[in-house]
Design a protein that fits this description.
Length: about 400
């Protein structure tokens, strides 16, 4: 089905054998390896020349290489190759998959393999959702279990934070937790065939294919809306998050749930209380004069505190969690890192795009008066406690 050189290349570049995976303590070899890789990527992402306690923004943002900014960005090339190879080797043959393969072949007559992997991923994401949920996410139960637990913890905890009244987001999350018990049923071959039914792909003509794909993308895809969209986005997120520590999941996922909830609840609150809180926080003048900046500062601050609390609770909630946390820290120590540093860095990098001034004030309020933060970075000082304001 593939042209010969392509087949050889794909097979050569992906040789994972699904053999018995060795464990040390609670961590599999794969998780241990990923910790080291995460640590190395972090070295390239932060600016070690900037002292964290002076300007955290400069420390985590100034190299302009956030480790993780939005859910569902493009996977690195090695992952794209892995996904395409898995798809190719998957025994189920169906029309939509054949179109993807034909597109890849047409692309490769004109472009580099690397570019074709990227383009194919971009245009055929739902098929990657298919292989991820079939082969990778459900197979490695640790991610899926942790992810579902993460949702449940948020749902439970959010009741004490936002009140026990039923809330549309909370109800939806509860449903998603159920759906992620069997995510693969959202990516059946038959549905994917229907999704791509109108798309014509020719091995011989890349230009035609591009034009057809542009046309195809103008119509409403079932994977761009509603449940299907979330199942796809979160499946891709899970794929990117394989073998990661919990200090990664909380500041990249849970924090977004809190921000979504606070973005609703803070805007509905009685304005007198809100004004009092903001006064107590002593926001800098330029934030204070802009009502939207003031609002965002409060939303970020609260989201940070609750996400941090939730992660801390996770560590404390069982001896196994504690042991995992300690074992990970032991490995990270070789890189002058720790789970807490991973958490703080990833959390802060959510805000790099807001620019130095606003981000720095959110950090100032949220991080620098957090005992764990200044102990982690040995800042040796504690700024004025504003904890009781909000
Ligand atoms: C896409 O959806 C919009 C809004 O639901 C609708 O108005 C439009 O006609 C749809 N387009 C196609 C091509 O189905
Ligand atoms: C927050 O709420 C505002 C107003 O309701 C909305 O325009 C904005 O898109 C929301 N932001 C996020 C990140 O949900």
């Amino acid at each position: 089905m593939w042209t010969t050189p392509l087949t050889m290349l794909l097979c050569a570049s992906f040789g994972v054998v699904e053999a018995q995976i060795a464990y040390t303590g609670h961590l599999s070899e794969l998780r241990i390896k990923e910790l080291s890789q995460l640590a190395m990527r972090m070295e390239h992402s932060i600016n070690a020349k900037k002292y964290a306690c002076d300007s955290y923004y400069d420390h985590v943002c100034s190299r302009n290489r956030p480790l993780f900014s939005v859910m569902g960005h493009m996977p690195p090339s090695s992952d794209l190759i892995q996904l395409l190879t898995k798809l190719q080797n998957d025994p189920e043959q169906f029309e939509a998959k054949q179109k993807l393969i034909d597109f890849f072949i047409s692309c490769n007559t004109l472009k580099s393999l690397q570019d074709c992997y990227r383009e194919t991923f971009e245009y055929f994401k739902p098929l990657f959702g298919y292989i991820i949920t079939k082969d990778l996410v459900e197979g490695s139960s640790h991610e899926l279990r942790d992810f579902r637990e993460l949702i449940q913890r948020f749902v439970d905890r959010s009741k004490s934070v936002f009140g026990t009244d039923s809330h549309p987001l909370r109800n939806r999350l509860q449903t998603y937790k159920e759906k992620f018990a069997t995510p693969s049923i959202y990516f059946y071959a038959g549905d994917l065939n229907r999704e791509y039914a109108g798309l014509r792909i020719y091995r011989e003509s890349y230009e035609h294919n591009l034009r057809n794909i542009e046309q195809h993308r103008k119509r409403n895809s079932t994977f761009e809306l509603g449940v299907q969209r979330t199942m796809l986005d979160w499946s891709l997120y899970l794929y990117q998050s394989r073998f990661k520590p919990m200090s990664y999941f909380y500041p990249t996922f849970t924090v977004h749930l809190y921000m979504t909830m606070f973005n609703i609840s803070e805007r509905q609150r009685d304005s007198t209380h809100f004004r009092e809180e903001v006064e107590c926080l002593k926001l800098p003048q330029y934030v204070n004069v802009l009502s939207e900046a003031r609002m965002l500062a409060v939303i970020y601050l609260k989201s940070f505190r609750h996400t941090w609390q939730e992660y801390s609770d996770w560590i404390q909630s069982s001896t196994k969690h504690r042991a995992i946390y300690d074992q990970e820290n032991e490995i990270l120590r070789h890189y002058q890192l720790s789970n807490k540093r991973i958490f703080f860095t990833l959390f802060a990098q959510n805000f790099c795009e807001f620019g130095k001034e606003l981000a720095e004030h959110v950090f100032y309020l949220g991080l620098k008066e957090n005992t764990d933060f200044f102990n982690t970075y040995s800042c040796g000082y504690q700024t004025e406690i504003t904890r009781n304001c909000v």
